[in-house]
Design a protein that fits this description.
Blueprint: H1 2-6, H2 13-34, H3 45-73, H4 78-99, E1 116-122, E2 133-139, E3 142-143, E4 150-152, E5 154-156, E6 161-163, E7 170-176, E8 180-186, E9 193-198, E10 201-206, E11 211-217, H5 226-250, H6 252-262, H7 272-287, H8 300-313, H9 326-340, H10 344-357, H11 359-367, H12 371-383, H13 385-391, H14 400-416, H15 424-431, H16 434-453, H17 462-475, H18 485-505, H19 535-550, H20 557-573, H21 582-608, H22 616-630, H23 638-641, H24 658-667, E12 673-676, H25 678-687, E13 695-697, H26 704-711, E14 717-722, H27 723-728, H28 733-738, E15 743-749, E16 752-757
Parallel strand pairs: 12-13, 12-14
Antiparallel strand pairs: 1-7, 1-9, 2-3, 2-6, 2-8, 4-7, 5-6, 8-11, 9-10, 14-16, 15-16
């Protein structure tokens, strides 16, 4: 601290005032468009005052910062200054795009520089209509309040502007719009038109339907645009990152030595006390997963495995039931059902057990990075809200950590047995030992399973790890040695051929989708740092990326894990899948756990380079404070205490069918049939009640004629369709059933609409 304060002695304000004013004012503009406009109306006095205040604070901070930077850079060479500037820039960019999230929103502007536009609207009396109303006026900055609209011949009635005088009417509004403005008119007839004038330029909107929308786009000056605001954000974050980067840069020798000593490949045998601690953490993991397994109804996909396991026990052939993840999930569940009966908790408990057992291979992987990283990895895995939530569903995602960690552990052992700068003619014996051959045969089994036995499962995502393994094996070769040339060519061709076969079997259209980043950065509800100071763990993650590259020749595991994480995350970022759910990306979390553990340990190493006064209690207090600021441990309890139908961590909807089932049990009669969408139908199959004569599946593509052909065959029955399918059907069930005298609409239960026919 004294070293930092010493830089402010002899403060020279004049020399640094001009750049401080420029950057301070830029900070004020950035704060205006990035945060304040979400709280205060555009053009308001409060917004202007806070923008000026932010600018003044920015000027003061930059004056102090420039004085400090001047003394900090003295004695550094130009190369070192350039390295430090580059490090600050990259750190600023990383923090800006991971700690903040407003950059994802397209309608971001610097309010002070937005131009003001004038809107005028009139309805000519010769248009043939006198019943016109404006439902809303909306701009890119938000809805326009009718109190700010001047009007003659119009009145505000029930949240809309209604035309009251056709012969003499006029609307006028002046304000800032952003990129576009939208007006929505409603007329009972398809006649008439509106004259809309923007800044003196007249446009005509014909009323061709009941609701008529008019959208007008405006040019945004660059100095008020989203792009300029983002540049200001990156610039400010880079400058503000400089002090931290400088401290790291000054301590780089000490940090590098500590990292070399701590993250060297550790293959020492695990002692008893280590296993005791691992067992304690496994108990913690189980305690955070096992309670309240029946708090939530099964999700739609869970019913598939539950019912398939039930059918197998009742004598159905394996080939005739739901096939996805048959060997990973369904068949193991049948064993639980045979022991405990058809209980939901028993099926979910098995996934919890497998998920907890994944701690063992995780520990073996992270143990090669040292004991601290190993225990941190296990702790983060045990408390990860995302992993906990996924472990409590009857799906393959609960089991993947166990299998994926063992597979990757085998890959790491395989890579470690291949010497760097491998020469084919000299080192081939080391690659063909009996242990290595057995390991290769073992690693060959998962791809065979994914591509042959379980082709419907997402288990095939493990092939991404095999692609990374192939790349790292390829990089083990000594490319300067001519004797390796045939092997280099052969392996390069093999990699290209594998990529081609992947493309042929799983074709994807390359696109860019940044949604997957939301699950790992920003304020992600899937992570430990939800609603906490995410900047602390994310700085550690940033350090992991840098250190992993720097020490790749000392320990290849960090960069290998980075490649795994990048491969799994990149697959979803650049694939054509338009829909993402947390379950799709949960496998990437497996590598993120270890990388985050490395990052936490790097923060600890960095802090230890500063001599803190006091005893061991000071370090304990520091850890507790940082942990409390960065990690939301209470959030880890959400999966076991939540009873909301929509689980916020997994994004799955667990339809609560209690009320519907109670009603159906009291009203279903013998001989009734059921036409239903898959949620309630699968639930009835799971609980074996009510006893319907027949159950027909209602799908999105089901036609109106299909439903009535079933209704015509039976005297009585029920139709139950959820909201999601009603919105996507090719016909309107409400209108179709309303016009049939046989149908009676019972009501809405949660999101299930219920009809019945044949009531006497």
């Amino acid at each position: 601290m004294r070293q930092i304060l010493s830089h402010f002695q002899g403060f020279e304000i004049k020399r640094h005032l001009l750049p401080a004013i420029v950057l301070g004012v830029g900070w004020g503009f950035f704060v205006n468009g990035y945060w304040l406009v979400d709280v205060f109306p555009a053009g308001s006095k409060s917004l202007l005052f806070l923008t000026i205040l932010a600018g003044l604070i920015g000027i003061l901070v930059y004056c102090l910062l420039f004085q400090w930077i001047k003394k900090a850079l003295s004695g550094l060479s130009n190369v070192q200054k350039a390295e430090l500037a580059g490090l600050s820039l990259f750190t600023g960019v990383f923090l800006f795009f991971t700690v903040t999230d407003r950059w994802q929103e397209p309608d971001r502007y610097i309010d002070l520089f937005l131009p003001t536009h004038t809107l005028e609207v009139s309805i000519p009396p010769d248009g043939g209509t006198d019943a016109v109303s404006i439902l809303w006026i909306s701009t890119s900055l938000g809805d326009v309040s009718y109190s700010t609209v001047g009007h003659d011949g119009w009145n505000v009635i029930k949240d809309r502007l209604v035309l009251t005088n056709l012969s003499d009417n006029h609307l006028r509004w002046e304000g800032k719009t952003g990129q576009e403005i939208q007006l929505v008119f409603e007329t009972p007839s398809q006649t008439g038109y509106a004259v809309i004038t923007w800044d003196g330029h007249e446009e005509i909107l014909q009323f061709s339907r009941k609701k008529n929308s008019h959208v007008h786009a405006f040019e945004i000056p660059f100095y008020a645009s989203r792009e300029w605001m983002l540049l200001l954000g990156i610039l400010n974050f880079s400058f503000l990152s400089f002090p931290l980067c400088f401290l790291v840069f000054r301590k780089r020798v000490e940090i590098f030595r500590a990292v070399q000593h701590s993250l060297v490949v550790d293959t020492r045998q695990t002692v008893v006390r280590d296993w005791v601690l691992v067992m304690v953490l496994m108990v913690l993991a189980f305690v955070l997963r096992a309670p309240g397994l029946e708090n939530l109804f099964p999700s739609v996909e869970e019913y598939s495995h539950l019912n398939a396991a039930k059918q197998i026990i009742q004598g159905a052939p394996i080939q005739g039931v739901y096939q996805r993840s048959m060997w990973l999930v369904t068949l193991p569940i049948t064993l639980m059902f045979r022991m405990f009966g058809y209980e939901l908790w028993a099926a979910r408990l098995l996934g919890v057990i497998f998920n907890v057992l994944a701690v063992v291979p995780l520990y073996f992987i992270a143990r090669r990075l040292g004991r601290p990283v190993a225990f941190l990895s296990v702790l983060l895995y045990a408390t990860s809200p995302w992993v906990i939530a996924m472990s409590r569903v009857v799906r393959e995602y609960a089991y993947y950590p166990f299998y994926y960690y063992w597979i990757v552990y085998g890959m790491i052992v395989f890579l470690e047995r291949i010497p760097d700068r491998f020469h084919i003619d000299r080192d081939w014996k080391t690659a063909l030992t009996s242990k290595q051959i057995l390991l290769v045969l073992g690693l060959a089994l998962p791809p065979l399973y994914a591509l042959s036995l379980d082709t419907l499962s997402t288990f095939k995502l493990i092939l991404i790890a095999y692609a990374v393994l192939g790349l790292f094996t390829f990089l083990k070769l000594d490319f300067r040695y001519r004797g390796n040339l045939p092997a280099v060519i052969a392996m390069a061709l093999a990699i290209l051929m594998s990529a081609y076969l992947w493309w042929e079997r799983f074709p994807v259209k390359l696109t860019v989708n940044l949604v997957p980043l939301d699950y790992f950065f920003l304020n992600s509800s899937q992570q430990w740092y939800f609603d906490r100071a995410a900047i602390i763990p994310l700085l550690g993650f940033w350090g992991t990326m840098i250190v992993g590259i720097v020490i790749r020749r000392i320990n290849i595991i960090p960069v290998f894990l980075l490649a795994l994480y990048g491969g799994f995350l990149g697959f979803f970022m650049f694939s054509s899948n338009r829909f993402f759910a947390p379950r799709h990306l949960s496998t990437a979390e497996l590598w993120y756990v270890i990388l985050m553990a490395i990052g936490c340990y790097l923060i600890w190493i960095f802090l230890q380079t500063f001599p803190l006064p006091g005893s061991r209690r000071t370090w304990i207090f520091t850890i507790v404070i940082l942990g409390g600021l960065a990690f939301n441990f209470q959030h880890s309890l959400l999966p076991i205490i939540s009873r909301d139908s929509l689980m916020p961590i997994t994004g799955d909807y667990h339809n609560d069918l209690t009320e519907l089932q109670t009603f159906m049990l009291a009203n279903v009669k013998d001989g009734d049939v059921l036409i239903c969408s898959r949620i309630y139908g699968r639930y009835v199959e799971w609980v074996d009640e009510p006893d319907f004569q027949t159950i027909y599946d209602f799908q999105v593509q089901t036609m109106e004629s299909d439903v009535f052909s079933i209704v015509d065959q039976y005297e009585s029955g029920w139709i139950i369709i959820d909201d999601a399918r009603i919105e996507r059907t090719s016909f309107s069930p409400q209108n179709a059933f309303l016009n049939d005298d046989r149908m009676e609409y019972i009501g809405l239960f949660d999101d299930e609409h219920v009809w019945r026919w044949g009531v006497k």
